[in-house]
Amino acid sequence: MPKMKTHRGTAKRFRVTGSGKIMRAKAFKSHILTKKSQKRKRNFRHETEVAKADQKVLARNLGRR
What DSSP element (H or E) covers 38? Predict the structure, then answer.
């Protein structure tokens, strides 16, 4: 059986923490920023954990499990 390859598009968008959580960037930060409050834009900078429903597929794409 050949080795599993990492899906490169997934690898560029997600990262895995030391404890195994899959982290993602937040959406809605790219344009139409004038109507968004400074607090809201500031909170877009932080990463958040991927939803439980998506973790299995993403882990496989990242070459884990």
Answer: helix 38-43
**Tokens standing for 46?**
């932080």
Residue appearing with tokens 């900078």: 45
Does the pTM of the predicted model rise above 0.90?
Answer: no
How far apart are alpha carbons 64 and 4 in whole angstroms? 9
Q: Quick one: what percent of the chain has pLDDT higher than 90?
A: 89
- CA-nearest of 54, 48, 61, 65 to 8 is 61
Say if residues 26 and 13 touch (Cβ distance below 8 Å): no
Q: Would you state the pLDDT for residue 65?
A: 65
Based on the number of CB atoms within 10 Å of its own CB, is 65 exposed (0-12), middle (13-18) or buried (19 or more)?
exposed
Counted residue by residue, the chain has a size of 65
